[in-house]
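From the shared-data thread, chain only:
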Amino acid sequence: IGRQYVETCLNLVNKHAAKFFGKQYLDEVTSSQMRAFRVFLQKEQKLHGTSVVKVFNTVVLPLRYASSEGLIPPVSTDQISFPGQEKRRDAFTTKEVAALLDHHWSDEHGRIAFLLAAFCGLRRGEIQALMINCVFADHILVARSYSRLEGFKSPTNGETRKPPIDEWLRTEMH
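Structure, as tokens:
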């Protein structure tokens, strides 16, 4: 878990959960309180959709973990699950990628970043951390990532990877 994720969760707890639960301990939280918390987020905090899910899960996940590790009495987490949708990640259509490839980019760095994301599958932080000595004849060595809050860190999955790169894109980068 990265520092940025932890900071985001702490902000959500301080902004929303603390108002509802106060100084209550995890082992004192009940399923009925969690249902009331969901209503509180929607009615009192005026949150909608994925914002409710994000705040709700910030409380539910530690509760589930503590229960599964025996740190608190067993809690039926099925009763406090949130009936929301999975986070949907949209990908560009072929037509949209073609339009972006034909686009006149005023920022050359932005164009190269788009090409690396589209053709090599690099994420934003991986592109920001990329150094030219990590670009080889047939692949890129992705060994680190960058975030504004944490600086340089290991990639999202924690493992180094070697996505292939075509010669034309490697040439574009130089």
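The two ends are 34 Å apart (CA to CA).
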